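Researcher: Checking consistency across runs. Here is B12-binding domain-containing radical SAM protein again:
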Amino acid sequence: MRVKFILPALTEATNPYWRPIKYSLFPPLGLATLAAYLPDDWEAELQDEHVEPLRLDDAPELVVIQVYITNAYRAYALADIYRSRGSYVCLGGLHVTSLPAEAAAHADSIFLGPGEETFPQFLRDWQQRRPQPRYESSVRTLVGVPPIRRDLIRRELYLVPNSIVVTRGCPHHCDFCYKDAFFEGGKSFYTQPVDDALAEIDRLPGRHLYFLDDHLLGHQRFAASLFDGMRGMGRLFQGAATVDSILRDTSLLEKAAAAGLRSLFVGFETLSERNLRASNKRQNLGRDYAQAIERLHALGIMINGSFVFGLDDDGPDVFARTVEWAVKQGITTATFHIATPYPGTDYFKRIEAEGRLLHRRWDQYDTRTVVHQPGPLLTAEQLKTGYDWAYREFYSWANITKASLAHTSLKHQIKHFAYAGGWKRFETLWNFMIKTRQLNSMRPLLEAILAKVQGPRGTLNPAPADFIPLPIVQ
Ligand code: SF4
C-alpha cells in the first residue's frame, strides 16, 4: 500500500515578495505525526511543496493533504488531480475544520480538528472498506501517540529540522485565533506525557530545538518538569509564550533559561487596551509589557514580538508608535500582521456580520493583504501602506542599531545586531543557500560565528543564544 502525504505550497510562493527562507524553516510535523499511524509494511512518502517541486506523475492508493487558508486552492487542485486518478484523498487541517463543506467537495474524507484520534480510526475503517466521509475529533489525548516519522523528512531542506510540538492548543481564547474553532468539541489545551516529550527530544540530533507549541509555558507543571528533564541535555531552544506567563511570580522562566531557552515569540499584538478587550486577549490586559521584556532580557532570552495592525482602535499613528516602542524596548525581531479575520473565528463572525469583509479569496488571507474594511480610524490603503512601512522601518539599519543599543551588555548588543540583520537583511544569501540546498549547513556555521560572543554560563542567567531568533510562521 502506498500513501503520499502532501503539504501544498501557498499561492504566494510565486509572488515576487515571497521570502523563501520563511517557508524553509520547519518541516511538516503534523503530516509526519499522522504517518506514524500507518502499518509497518505500508510505503509512505512525504512531500513539502515549499521546499521541493512536487512529483505528480504517480497514483498512490491514499493521498493525505494538509490544508491551511492560503494554500487551500492549491490543495484542492492537487486533491482533484489525485481523485481523478483513482487515489483516495483525505483533507485535514485548520482550513478544512473552518470550512468543511468547501473542502468536502474535493475529498473522499475530511478531518476536523486534530488527527491523533481520527486518523487511526479512518485507517481501520478504510482497511475494512467502510471509510466515512467526515471524521470529527472529540477524544483529545497525546498519551500513546507513536514517535513522529522523522525518517520521512528531508532534513537538509530546512533551516530548523529539529522542530517539535509537545502540547496541543492553548489555554487562552483570543477572538482572532484559529485555536477555538480547531479544537471545538473537546479539550483545547493538553500536553504530552513529559517522558515521551523528553524521549522525542533525545532522538533529535544536534543542539537546536524549536518548540512550535502555541504556548510552551501554558501548563506550568508540565513545563517545569520538561525543563527539569532537559537540564544538562546541552540544548538551545526557541518557543512561544504569552506576556502573562512571563510575568508570573514563579521560577518557570528561570528553569526554561537553564534548560536552554534562548528566544521567545511573544504575542504583544497591540499597545491598545481597547483592542485587547475587543479581541478577548485578556491575558495581556493590564500587563506591564516593559517588565516582561526586561525579565526576558535579564535571562539572556531574545524576543520576537508579534504585533497586529488594523484592529478597530488603530488610527494612522499606530505604525510609528508600535515601531518606536519595539525599537526602544530592544525587541530583536518583530512579526507584523495585518488583522485578518480567519473563517471559523469570532473575529470573522463579527466582521462578516458588520458587512466589512472585502472578499473571500482565501489565498490573500495571508496577514500581509488587507481583506476587510478596517475600523473607523483607518482606511484600507493606510493600513497596507503603514504595515509595509513598519517592516521597512523596524528592520532599517538605523533601527536595528538603535534596538541593539537598548541592551546593557556589549555581547547582547552585538548578538542582537547580528541576528536581526541576518534574519531580515541578507535575503540574497538565504535564497542562494536554499537554491543550492545548503540551508542545513548554515546552522553550525551560525553557531560557530555567534558562539564567539558567548559568555560564561551561569545557572540562572545562562549564556546568550547562539542561533537566530527566527520568527514563528503563523
Ligand atoms: S494566546 Fe496565542 S495561541 Fe492562545 S488563543 Fe491567543 S492567539 Fe491563540
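Researcher: Does this match what you'd expect to see?
Model: One thing to look at in this run: Residues 2-136 form a domain with the Rossmann fold fold (CATH 3.40.50.280).
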